[in-house]
Amino acid sequence: MGKVLTADQVAAYDRDGFVTPFRAVPAEQAAGWRDAMERTVLAFDREHPAEPGRRYASSRMKPYLLFRWAAEMVRCPAVLDAVEDLIGPDILVYHTTLWWKAAGSPNYVPWHQDGTYFGLAPHEHVTAWVALTPSTEESGCVTILPGSHRAGQVPHADRPDPAIMLSRGQTLAELPDTTGAVPIPLQPGEFSLHHTLVMHSSAPNNGTEDRIGLGISYIPARVRHTGPTRLSATLVRGANTHDHFDLERAPLIDMDDDARAAHADSIARFWRASELMPEMSLAH
Ligand SMILES: O=C(O)CCC(=O)C(=O)O
Q1: What is the pLDDT of residue 168?
Q2: Which domain holds residue 226?
Q3: What is the longest distance spanned by two Cα atoms in the chain?
Q4: What are 153-159's contacts with CB under 8 Å, separation 24+?
Q5: Among 39, 86, 108, 283, which has the minimal tally of Cβ within 10 Å of its Cβ?
Q6: 127 touches ligand 1 (CB under 6 Å)
Q7: Would 2 be classed as within a structural domain?
């Protein structure tokens, strides 16, 4: 018997490659995370303006190493209970991306599989997408092609387009038939879970409110990085049974020197790893 998911929900995840929606925290707590997120991320970004095409330690990547609100989010007990039902009790955070799609923004995420860019084996990683604002069809919520994870890893290619939110515009080399695609709307404080190989995308934000969520990549401790670089990850539940990663520490103070150093080190390792693995060279 699982902690949160019913046997039917676990079977649906195995069959469809996703399961949704679940509640992580009450809407008021999500609003608090959102306020803290906007304050801290904007402050950090003022100091580190994005330079298109340059790989740097962006606050959109692994924000849980910089900011306490994100450190709390990746350790949210309700999310971990659900993840544990899918991958077992020894859980690490391998990566996270803050997906902030401004109101009216043409930005979108093309069809892709997360597994392509992470260099992990076996393919057991699960992404929890935790909503900080309403995420609706109008505002460009994540859309999933059910069962597409069963195709295994398929080839991806660069598609240079400044509106694409993935760093190099990476997308499936051959677009799938998306007839059966399912939008995954969420309210603040809710989350969905999707498999690392399930094909998914998101459309531009045609709404009047920003659409913001944190995509947290959880792996069981038995999963390893297949390249030669020693990467870091955060143990959030159970034990680091296989020692495949150096363990990261949570920030004690937002953006202090220790947090910045840990974040910069982790992102630098990730970029180094991506230079050495063809499929990761397109990493998001
Ligand atoms: O938030 C989005 O629009 C895309 C999310 C995504 O691709 C992911 O979480 O893997």
Answers
A1: 65
A2: 7-282
A3: 49
A4: 153/113, 153/115, 153/116, 153/123, 153/197, 154/113, 156/112, 156/113, 156/116, 156/279, 156/282, 158/282, 159/110
A5: 39
A6: yes
A7: no
Ligand 1 geometric centre to CA of 202 (Å):
7
Q: How many domains does the chain have?
A: 1
22: Cβ below 6 Å to ligand 1? no
Contact by Cβ (8 Å): 167, 52: no
Q: What is the CATH number of the domain that holds 180?
A: 2.60.120.620
Angle at alpha carbon of residue 108, lines to 105 and 110, rounded to 5°:
170
Q: Would residue 1 count as lying in a domain?
A: no
User: pTM for the full model?
Assistant: 0.95
Mean pLDDT by 10 residues, the chain (284 residues): 91 98 98 97 86 69 97 98 98 96 93 90 97 98 97 84 75 88 98 97 96 98 96 98 98 96 95 78 48
pLDDT at res. 174: 83
Strand order in the sheet with 232-237: 18-23, 190-195, 126-131, 211-220, 91-101, 232-237, 246-247
- pLDDT, residue 284, reads 46
Sorted by sequence, the CB contacts under 8 Å of residue 189 that are 6+ apart come out as: 23, 24, 25, 26, 27, 29, 30, 130, 131
215 lines ligand 1 (CB under 6 A): yes
Q: Which atom of ligand 1 lies nearest, measured to the CA of 215?
A: 9
